[in-house]
């Protein structure tokens, strides 16, 4: 089959007309979709989300009671608002650049994450106050508290390894933390020695044990 220039030209013209038709159809569909979305009535809904606090600087802690929920007024098409989930919206403040003392942080639309098509009309509260205080670290001795029942009189020596743990707390809290307690249960039968790994718990305000919380307690009995 021999293609003549006139045939090739006719084919190209036909293809061009076809592409223009598809382009025109796509444009018409896009315009129709835009009119549908734009013409959909906007509504407003109230939404309550937890406030997430990120980036607390190392060595500092929050000492005041901070509002942990934010009330939002959101506006958008009903088709989007009607399917909105709790995980689709979030409120975050970042303290990474904060210093010791009282901080006044303003919440704005940059602090709120919402899906496309949704606008944040109102944020309450839009101001958050945070007080940061510096923590100290000290080593606190660990004391074994042994419940030995009838074997109490036979105890010759109790060893705790390590004998102290590092604690991070506010300076005034150390006055209430004289020692840490490792609780050891009573033996169910007579033994030469009792060796137990015990997890030390600390419940005191902002205080926490730094690193490992386990100690090894060895109870030596008289022969």
Description:
It is a single chain. The protein has helices at 5-39, 78-81; strands spanning 43-54, 60-62, 69-76, 90-94, 101-106, 112-113, 119-124, 127-134, 136-146, 155-161, 164-169, 180-184, 193-199, 208-209, 214-221. It has 223 residues and is an alpha+beta fold.
Low-confidence stretches: none
CATH fold field value of the largest domain: RNA Polymerase Alpha Subunit, Chain A, domain 2
| Secondary structure category | alpha+beta
Query: Which CATH architecture of the largest domain is right?
Result: Beta Complex
Distance between the termini: 113 Å
Provide the succession of SSEs.
HEEEHEEEEEEEEEEEE
Strand content: 35-45%
**Share of helical residues:** 10-25%
Please, how many helices? 2
Mean pLDDT: 82
CATH class value of the largest domain: Mainly Beta
Structural domain tally: 2
Which key phrases capture this entry?
223 residues, alpha+beta, RNA Polymerase Alpha Subunit, Chain A, domain 2, 2 domains, 5-stranded mixed beta sheet, 4-stranded mixed beta sheet, 15 strands
Question: What is the topology?
Answer:
Blueprint: H1 5-39, E1 43-54, E2 60-62, E3 69-76, H2 78-81, E4 90-94, E5 101-106, E6 112-113, E7 119-124, E8 127-134, E9 136-146, E10 155-161, E11 164-169, E12 180-184, E13 193-199, E14 208-209, E15 214-221
């Amino acid at each position: 089959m021999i293609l003549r220039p006139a045939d090739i030209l006719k084919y190209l013209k036909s293809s061009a007309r076809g592409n223009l038709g598809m382009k025109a159809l796509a444009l018409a569909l896009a315009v129709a979709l835009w009119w549908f979305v734009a013409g959909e009535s906007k509504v407003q809904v109230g939404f309550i989300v937890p406030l997430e606090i990120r980036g607390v600087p190392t060595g500092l802690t929050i000492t005041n009671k901070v509002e942990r929920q934010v009330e939002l007024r959101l506006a958008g098409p009903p088709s989007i608002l009607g399917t909105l989930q709790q995980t689709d919206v979030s409120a975050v403040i970042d303290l990474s650049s904060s210093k010791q003392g009282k901080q006044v942080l303003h919440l704005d639309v940059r602090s709120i994450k919402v899906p496309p098509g949704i606008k944040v009309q109102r944020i309450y509260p839009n101001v958050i106050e945070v007080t940061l205080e510096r923590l100290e670290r000290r080593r606190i001795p660990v004391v074994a508290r042994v419940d030995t029942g009838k074997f109490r009189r036979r105890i010759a020596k109790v060893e705790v390894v390590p004998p102290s743990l590092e604690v991070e707390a506010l300076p005034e809290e150390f006055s209430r933390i004289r020692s840490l307690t490792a609780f050891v249960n009573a033996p169910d039968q007579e033994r030469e020695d009792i060796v137990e790994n015990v997890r030390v718990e600390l419940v005191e305000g902002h205080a926490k044990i730094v690193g490992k919380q386990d100690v090894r307690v060895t109870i030596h009995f008289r022969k």
